[in-house]
Amino acid sequence: xxxxxxxxxxxxxxxxxxxxxxxxxxxxxxxxxxxxxxxxxxxxxxxxxxxxxxxxxxxxxxxxxxxxxxxxxxxxxxxxxxxxxxxxxxxxxxxxxxxxxxxxxxxxxxxxxxxxxxxxxxxxxxxxxxxxxxxxxxxxxxxxxxxxxxxxxxxxxxxxxxxxxxxxxxxxxxxxxxxxxxxxxxxxxxxxxxxxxxxxxxxxxxxxxxxxxxxxxxxxxxxxxxxxxxxxxxxxxxxxxxxxxxxxxxxxxxxxxxxxxxxxxxxxxxxxxxxxxxxxxxxxxxxxxxxxxxxxxxxxxxxxxxxxxxxxxxxxxxxxxxxxxxxxxxxxxxxxxxxxxxxxxxxxxxxxxxxxxxxxxxx
Length: 363
Description:
22% strand; alpha+beta; 363 residues; 10 strands
């Protein structure tokens, strides 16, 4: 039996273009032109922020380094992006992207130098992408690092049209012999720096809690007067670079730092401790942002799960010498931080993190 032609099958054009396949090169060029002045605003010593070449350049000598060790980090924003996409508010997630990378650099005592981003979407909307990049540039200015390049990928079929994903890549440097952690010992004090809210971890649980309670991002936020839930949850991750670098340079007191991200206290603090030491935390000293108590109550989330999923009001932990704590806290306070003494390091006999008291979430 011979095959019969399928008369219902439309003929393929002999003049297909990339745009016919869903990729708009002109939109990509328009985005580059739109973001050039935004990128230029992140210039710092050592950088040349003209974009459009095949690679970004950075001059370590021009940045003032003599014998530098480079430190690199990359990260994303996670499902917090779903809130930005669904609310149409795209101007802050770029700050989150930078924060998640540069906060990981400064915990090693490194000064962030430059940043590159990756933006992938199903259909490139120039205005939305420009707002995302504007947020990235704002994060770079806060961290004093240059946005020296990036990549925009339009991938129809891989992402739904309005969906996008972000990845960030940051490089910093420290003079040889100054990297952290160093010299951590029994009796050292733990100091916490306040977070701005949920930051950029735990949003899959956040969204599940909202769904279970039939709440949407446009509903009023009981924990943030005058804001919707979406607006309040999009509060960007704090960038701790400038105050921490100032404290390192002015006091010499900081021995280690832990960025409190996914995994919370029990997963992140042990990463910077010797095996023989445990962190004893007085969590009652923390007054967490109201969003955490609201989430715990709505989701019935137990304290241990809160502590290993969210930052619970503390975005950064510092380990410092006891006799230098007063000077350290004074420098941090003058830089606009609200440092909290949260405990100390003791000989380990069991878990690496011990809760001597618990946070009052107000539930």
